[in-house]
């Protein structure tokens, strides 16, 4: 299927702000992140907005290593299941290893050097860890908050296997926005998120919203979902207390990923935004190139 013009990647911004004291530019930022040993989901998930965001010093940090214990059909992050096909393992050829104890401090130092005041932290899923990495998330939030006074932190977390205790560990560190993506309609979970569970994701979002924190979620179009299924997901999210929503076009990140079933026209995204606002969502980003961390600070201001 030919890529329509409306999903072509955004070019980098010209003359964007400099990375605090480090020199501007996408290449400089990439080099800096590599030297700091910091991963971003922008690079690992081959985000189409990477150049545009990097040129504005925007990035979503990916913690707990670049290897995931799951293998979602839409995602290009390396999976531990690729190396041996046996699923979650502790370390070794899968690429999974123990968490890096100094990652929270390195992350905070990188965010400070980049001059960020709004920091987005996400992670791979680590089903091999007892708490799913919730304690590490909390350490990263605290390190950023103490290293950059006044900074806001948005977390985009995995489902922690549906553990409310793990979720509360993350929330206890005081993030400003809690995000967990449902990614698609429940009928497509077996292909799109085979190790996940739609109801479990809704429970995690519902528990988070009970705490009073702004809760955000998102999904992709173009994987084969039907109009009524999309409407039902939006209703489920609203009923669970979700106030912020992102809707974007699925773009196949690699030949091993699921094919695109449809390139949805921009007008449809506008219709969905209107419908979502009418349902009571306070902040809605809906467009072919929308990704859940894109312009996150701007959308946070809406709530
Ligand atoms: S859990 Fe997240 S990082 Fe892991 S494969 Fe799925 S989408 Fe990618």
Q: What's the gyration radius in Å? A: 18 Å
Poorly predicted runs of 5 or more residues: 14-23, 85-93
Count of discrete alpha- or pi-helical segments spanning 4 or more residues? 11
Overall geometry comes to: globular
Beta-strand proportion = 5-15%
Order of helices and strands: HEHHEEEHEHEHEHHEHEHEH
Number of strands: 10
Q: Mean of residue pLDDT? A: 88
> What does the largest sheet look like?
8 strands, mixed
Domain module count: 1
Helix content: 25-40%
Output the CATH topology.
TIM Barrel
State the CATH class: Alpha Beta
Structural class per helix/strand content?
alpha/beta
Present as ligands are:
iron/sulfur cluster
CATH architecture: Alpha-Beta Barrel
Q: Quote the distance from N terminus to C terminus.
A: 38 Å
Regarding quaternary structure, how should these chains be classified?
single chain
């Amino acid at each position: 299927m030919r890529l329509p013009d409306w999903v072509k990647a955004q070019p980098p911004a010209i003359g964007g702000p400099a990375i605090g004291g480090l020199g501007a530019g996408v290449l400089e930022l990439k080099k800096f992140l590599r030297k700091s040993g910091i991963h971003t989901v922008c690079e690992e998930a081959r985000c189409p907005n990477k150049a545009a965001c990097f040129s504005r010093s925007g990035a979503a940090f990916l913690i707990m290593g670049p290897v995931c214990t799951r293998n979602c059909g839409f995602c290009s992050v390396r999976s531990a299941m690729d190396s041996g096909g046996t699923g979650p393992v502790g370390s070794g050829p899968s690429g999974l290893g123990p968490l890096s104890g100094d990652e929270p401090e390195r992350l905070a130092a990188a965010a400070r050097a980049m001059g960020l005041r709004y920091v987005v932290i996400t992670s791979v899923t680590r089903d091999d860890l007892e708490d799913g990495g919730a304690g590490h998330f909390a350490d990263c939030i605290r390190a950023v908050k103490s290293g950059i006074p006044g900074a806001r932190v948005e977390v985009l977390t995995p489902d922690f296997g549906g553990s409310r205790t793990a979720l509360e560990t993350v929330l206890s560190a005081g993030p400003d926005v809690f995000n967990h993506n449902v990614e698609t309609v429940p009928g497509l979970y077996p292909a799109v998120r085979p190790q996940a569970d739609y109801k479990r994701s809704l429970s995690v979002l519902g528990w988070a919203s009970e705490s009073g924190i702004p809760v955000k979620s998102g999904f992709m179009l173009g994987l084969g979902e039907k109009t009524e299924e999309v409407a039902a997901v939006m209703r489920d999210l609203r009923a669970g207390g979700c106030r912020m929503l992102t809707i974007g076009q699925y773009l196949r990140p690699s030949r091993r990923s699921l094919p695109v079933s449809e390139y949805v026209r921009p007008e449809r995204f506008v219709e969905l935004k209107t419908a979502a606002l009418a349902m009571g969502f306070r902040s809605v980003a809906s467009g072919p190139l929308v990704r859940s961390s894109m312009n996150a600070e701007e959308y946070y201001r809406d709530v």
